[in-house]
Amino acid sequence: MKVSCLTLLAAWSVIGLCHGIPNSIIGPIFQANSPLNGQDLDDQLLAAALWDGEQDLPGDWNEEGAIGGSQLSHLLARPRLFGQEVLMLRATRRDDRLAQLEATFVDAGSYFGYFDEELPKGLSRRELEEVMRERLAMKQADFESKYEDTIAGLRESIAEMADKPNPKTRRFGHGRLLRAEPEEWTRDGLSIRLFIADQRLVRVVFSREGEESNGWLDPAVDELSERDRLERLSAAVREEGGKVIIDGIQIVPQGYKPYCGLNTLAMAGRHFGLHLDEDWMAAAAGFQNTGSAGGSNMVKLYHAVAAEAGLSLDRSSKFDESGVIRALERGMPVVVWRRFAPERNRLHQRTAREPEFRLPEPGSAGERASWPGDDAPLHASVITGYNAGTGEVHFLESWNKQGETRRMRIEEMAATSYLCFVFKP
Q: pLDDT by residue (tens digit) across 308-362?
């Protein structure tokens, strides 16, 4: 398994430049030995008693955390809905009642992951690349078939049980890049929306008719004034012993996908109150089904997400320490794209586990020489705080355990960052 890289080429996996990612959401779901695996849940999930609060959701659910006024969890099982296997079933609760169910049936990110298949030995680099292209073409053909068959099957099954067979087209989201046009059916007071991201994602969302969300922003945040939204962010800032820390930023684990730039953005987006996940953002950014992030328009996506949250965004190829500090003091995390080295990663990991551990001074012997250079793999992290007394920033990774905040000298972050995204009012 390999570290998330923003421009990872498939050939890199052959020469071993990247390293392990410890966790994901999809993994535990597929490992769960649940009696609901393979079971049809149509009747249970469409039952009025479930949506009226008289009946509990079936199975074991894993809590993911909060977005705005919503609590999220996902089912540790692989059931079936509308005759199709569900990759992940996520529930959203508001005011202590079920507000939405989201069933993902097809996800290109999980299907393709990183390209790291075992390849024949003794081939030249050009021959290896040709083998990879052939295998990838086969995977793409298989995925396209599954994608098309799933959409056709869902449309047919939903139409058969809906109040009316023909769906309406809705508009979802505001900015053009993140806008969706789901097909919507209704059944006995429930809205059933089919979201399709071309050749990337197939998802069905259930909610009470009349209570559907038409944007990515959480309703509890959406109803606030701009001033109150900014105060909400500022309220998450904690000052302690010379440190300024933004509390409550949740890890969105990327799993086995080249998604560090997406998952770190999703972490910031959740903090702002957006229900945007990395899979929909991958489609919006134009990810191709190649097992890498190459060719995607990530920078444009970052600006679109900021606008969706009612914020602006400064992007710079230089690390502006004063701008980063101002953003953190306002309760706005900063996303950095940086160069990565396993040795430095182990050192920064130690700072999370040993609070008293002091990082070497930048001027100490060999310290700067150990920082990753221009040829190092690329990665993304979220800065969540700073300590002016020690000259450190605090940051999170998209594969960490919850709450495992790491530290890095500001000089190292400035030297190894190549793009810095600072959110602003």
A: 999 999 999 999 999 999 999 999 999 999 999 999 999 999 999 999 999 999 9
Measured in degrees and rounded to the nearest 5, phi and psi for residue 228 equal -70, -35
For 158, 187, 252, the CA distances from 165, given in Å and listed in that order, are 8, 10, 37
> What is the phi/psi pair of residue 4, to 5°?
-65, 130
For residue 5, the 8-state DSSP code is -
Q: Which of 317, 333, 336, 314 is nearest to 325 (CA)?
A: 333
Q: Which residues are paired to 104 by β-bridges?
A: 88, 203
Residue 295 has pLDDT above 70, yes or no: no
Instruction: Tell me how far apart the alpha carbons of residues 417 and 251 are, in angstroms, rounded to a whole number.
Output: 21
- Residue 100 burial class via C-beta count within 10 angstroms: exposed 0-12, middle 13-18, buried 19 and up: buried
Distance CA 414, CA 425 (A): 23
> What H or E segment, with its residue span, contains residue 186?
strand 183-187
Q: If DSSP codes are grouped into helix, strand and coil, which group holds residue 218? A: coil
Q: Helix or strand or coil: residue 303?
A: helix
